[in-house]
Amino acid sequence: MQITPLSDALGAEVTGLDVNKLDDGTFNLVGDAFLKHHLLVFRDQNLEVGSQADFSNRFGDLDVHIQKESAHPDRPEIQILSNKKQDGKYVGSPVAGDNWHTDLQYTDLPTLCTLLYAVETPQEGGDTEWANMYLAYETLPEATKDRLVGLKARHTFNRFRNKRVGVPEVYKGQGQKRYVDVSPPDSIHPVVRTHPETGRKALYVSERFTIGIEDLPEAEGEALLDELIAHQQQGQFVYRHKWRQHDLTMWDNRCLIHVACGGVPPGQIRHMHRTIVRGDVPY
Length: 283
Known about the structure:
With about 280 residues, the protein is α+β, with helices and mostly antiparallel strands. About 20% of the residues lie in helices and about 30% in strands. The chain has one domain (about 1-280): Double-stranded beta-helix (4-Layer Sandwich), CATH 3.60.130. It contains six helices and 18 strands. The longest helix is centred in the last third of the chain and has 15 residues, at about 220-230.
């Protein structure tokens, strides 16, 4: 096994390893690398649906995404992200992750880690970017850090309640079904969360799910949230990944945000399988 950093901000490439065949000692080394680099890219993996679920389950209990129509027909804990069509319908979600976010931030128990496996990759486009929220917090002005002490933010899955995002064009006319009917009650989490394993502090807001700062007047809260969202997306915190077929990525939602960059040309296919591991209550 070789572990090679991918950028100054975050991420490492893992080669010479088959995740189907990890003994406990090697698995623990992977866990250490995960906490150090926050994003791992396992190259050249051969994953059946069941083996991806089994490997993911070693990190904790798996969640099933609330948009059930993109669930794998044989394993509902696998979500299909794909622009492929069958009988005129998408076989999975074609535009998932099109705004910066951290997974399941809108629930009381957000995701610990996400694992995304590239079944088919396009020649152009389809990249993913991640941003390091440890660095985003640590580089805030001290006066801003002082302002954030004790503050909590409100998060929702419902796009219609978030002025920073809209309904993707592919889902125009389906917004009520996709974003309102399935939306759980709002979650309230600290604006700055403490990572339960490393003890480091990370900025914990996102343009996709965060809609307000609790206990501040609305105008003041909106201005602060705009400031934090602009700060966290700076290039110095970002790693951009160009996918290869059979890449398996695994990232820490407790200290990263991410976005799907899109740009796949017509006729090219981006087909991914995703699993999400349940985390704990942010503090």
